[in-house]
Amino acid sequence: MRILIKGGVWKNSEDEVLKAAVMKYGLNNWARVCSLLARKSPKQCKARWYEWLDPSVKKTEWTREEEEKLLHLAKLFPTQWRTIAPIVGRTAYQCLEHYEKLLDQAQGRDEMDENDPRRLKPGEIDPHPETKPARADAIDMDEDEKEMLSEARARLANTRGKKAKR
Q1: Which residues pair with 11 in a beta bridge?
Q2: Per-residue model confidence as pLDDT tens digits over 31-67
Q3: Rounded CA gap, 67 and 77, in Å?
Q4: Rounded Cα gap, residues 11 and 134, in angstroms
Q5: What are the pLDDT digits (tens) for 73-98?
């Protein structure tokens, strides 16, 4: 019996299942949505949706006006990224990352140096995988992934009967 650890880098196939599940089950039923993804928790599915897959998330370059608004709001509400994010029109994580980038540029640092505490060390796991693009699927999926995809297809396609709501 294999032990599955929930979490880690998102794959394209998981993103597609998540999108389809959100279309069917909505944004208030994360336990049902995540039941289609063996390696993800409801909290991870919700974070992935709101931080990356939600169509309203802007992934374009920051405009000068957005940067000025971000700097102004960061002075008014220090470290309150969830408050700042909807005003700027970005996610809280995007605001934090871009603010740190602007501070680095102001201090004359373009790249993170080796001693920067924000830099991941070799072997360290990214604490925010939901904010990154999905990893391409392997050409040959393992049996668990194939089973997860076929079950998700079957459950998402079922629209009648007792099990339609599951």
Answers
A1: 135
A2: 999 999 988 999 999 999 999 999 999 999 999 999 9
A3: 15
A4: 5
A5: 999 999 999 999 999 999 999 999 99
